Amino acid sequence: MLQQINYIFRKRLPQYNSIEELFGAIQAKLKDKVEIDTQELKLSGGSPVVILKNILSFRKKSPSQINHITGDVNYMALVTGKKSVLTIHDIGSILKGNTLKRIYLKLFWFTLPAIFVNKITVISEFTKAELCKVIPFASKKIEVVYNPVHSELSYCPKEKNSVCPNILLIGTKPNKNIERTFEALSGITCKLTIIGKLTENQLKLLELYKLEYKSMFQVPYVDIIQAYKNCDLVLFASTYEGFGMPIIEAQAIGRPVITSNIGAMKEVAKDTAYLVNPYNVEEIREAVLSITSNVEMQNKLISKGRINVERFRIDKIVEDYLTIYKDVINA
């Protein structure tokens, strides 16, 4: 008899797909090894009323099932029982706001869930170090399982374009550092493809710096894959990431990457991307000019990136999760 794994997902919203794409791919690989069940919560948000209603909606089908809380709804650990795994994707994007809000979020997203679950998985050593500071009492429960690169992403070589390269930017939230990126690209002949909803201020900056661009928002993953294939370079100089999926997605397609020399991005990319200080506009600019004008450098980064991606192949990640499920069963 196969072990039953119940995956608990947040309510799906059109603008947020990363967790669903990630664990959907993992479920597809696991379907012959475990019995899979899925529960999508009915409400989104983090108010006390939403938390209470979502908790009350939980139904355990079998006392032996393992419940895997896939992210963003950590508070569900209060009712899923000891045979539970909680995946935490990052810390910084949650613990922000005024003091009262931070206390509330820390309690329901970290402290209480950490007491109830058997295992906590995080997506980078960087996130693990951050989380251990927040819940030091639960440090022995925390294990790193990297995000897998999507199996639909495969190497797709493209003719080099040094005249007017297409530069892909992923995300428009404050941590994506897109305002400094725009400034760094000012005066450089290029076309931008931007995935994410642009703010009024970002639109004004695009006009101010006279940058040619195309923006995409709430698009299916197949369109994002095509954006990777169409680009010449991925520029991902974030100030904070729990992991940094665009790094390995771009490398899987075969595109050079510029990313930040801090946190999880440095951990994920290692020496296979052009690393920059995300707070230094001139450094970002110099990286773009260096790569777009040097075909040899592009080829070197592409080759190293393809090797780096092997660390994140889905078969390895699936085995890591199976090991964790076995540990929970035997606990």
Automatic annotation (TrEMBL):
Pfam families: Glyco_transf_4 (PF13439), Glycos_transf_1 (PF00534). The keyword Iron-sulfur does not apply. Keywords: Glycosyltransferase, Transferase. SUPFAM superfamilies: UDP-Glycosyltransferase/glycogen phosphorylase (SSF53756). One of its GO terms (biological process) is lipopolysaccharide biosynthetic process. GO terms for molecular function: glycosyltransferase activity. Residues 77-151 form the Glycosyltransferase subfamily 4-like N-terminal domain. CDD domains: GT4_MtfB-like. Gene3D superfamilies: Glycogen Phosphorylase B (3.40.50.2000). Residues 173-306 form the Glycosyl transferase family domain. PANTHER family: GLYCOSYLTRANSFERASE WBBK-RELATED. This is Mannosyltransferase (GT4). The lineage of its organism: Bacteria, Pseudomonadati, Bacteroidota, Flavobacteriia, Flavobacteriales.
